Structure formats: C-alpha cells, structure tokens
Amino acid sequence: MEIIAWFIAALVLAGLELAVGEFTLLMLGGGALAASGVALTAAPLWGQVAAFALVSLGLLFFVKPILRRKMQVPLALDTSSEALVGHAAEVLETVHQGSGGQIRLDGSIWSAVTVDPHASYSEGEHVTVVRIDGPTAIVWKEN
User: Fold this and answer.
1) How far apart, in whole angstroms, are the C-alpha atoms of residue 52 and residue 9?
2) Intervals of CATH 2.40.50.140 along the chain
3) Which residues contact 96 (CB under 8 A, 6 or more apart)?
4) I need a surface site. Which of 3, 66, 77, 116 has the fewest CB within 10 A?
5) In this structure, are residues 47 and 38 in contact, taking their beta carbons and an 8 Å threshold?
6) What membrane topology does this protein have (predicted)?
7) CA atoms within 13 A on the CB side of 142
C-alpha cells in the first residue's frame, strides 16, 4: 500500500509542477518515486522517508540548478553586427592588413582586414571573424 501512496504522491507532485514551473515540485516528485522504489524492497517507513529526503535534497541541490541553466533562454535575438563574431567567411577579394579586401559573411559582402599585419588571404580561402570594427570585419585564419 505504501508503494502506491508514494507513486501517487510522485504523480501529483509532477502534475503540480506543470502549474508552477520552477522544478522544485518535480524534484520532490523524483524523491517520492525513489521512496516508492525503496518501498518495493519492503523497507520500513523510516527508510522510505529517508530515501525520499535524500533523493529530494540531492535533486534540489544538484540537478535543479543544471536544469534551470539549460532552460534559460536569451531575452532577445542578437541582430547586431557583434553576433557575427566567430562566424566563418569566404574571401572574395585578397585581404591584407593595410589595404583590406572583401569577404562574404552571412550572405553579405563586407570589407575586411587581417588581424596579423603580415598575413594575406587569397580568394576562395575561408577565414573566421574575430571582431567587427564599424563596417569592417577583422579576420583570422587558422593554419
């Protein structure tokens, strides 16, 4: 009978979590499910309660923070030019430090210069955007 009571408690707590949405009741439901499993072994009530408490605390302190971090979404889509940093680009016109050149970045053509003053990238090479400085992309290529 205790098995069914713990299992029902787990279902009720998981169902209530749908209304609250902060993972606390879900973690307690996990503890109740663990206590139901312990009750299957014919453990005494104090063992079931201890399993419920230990598993619930473990879930609350270790799993809940990880779930909250995973579920946080950015507030807005970053559409600024800084969002292009780290993207790959194709060189359309030879890129030098001094004179610069052109790259195709995210479907648009950008002016570009190299990070390294001695580097030069030819047409067709693929580079990575390190920084955006106004209308110019600062690029780098791993060798």
Assistant:
1) 11
2) 81-141
3) 113, 114, 120
4) 77
5) yes
6) Multi-pass membrane protein
7) 3
Statement: 81-141 belongs to CATH 2.40.50.140: yes
pLDDT tens sequence across 96-135: 877 788 999 988 899 999 988 888 898 999 999 999 988 8
Backbone conformation region of residue 69, classed left if phi is above 0, alpha if psi is from -120 to 50, else beta: alpha
Query: What gap in Å lies between CA 113 and CA 111, rounded to an integer?
Result: 7
Q: Distance between CA atoms of 103 and 97, rounded to whole angstroms?
A: 14
Return phi, psi of residue 75, to 5°. Answer: -70, -35
Residue 57 pLDDT exceeds 90: yes
pTM of this structure: 0.52
Closest by alpha carbon to 95, among 77, 76, 121, 73? 121
Rg (CA), the chain: 28
Instruction: Answer whether 91's CB lies under 8 Å from 122's CB.
Output: yes
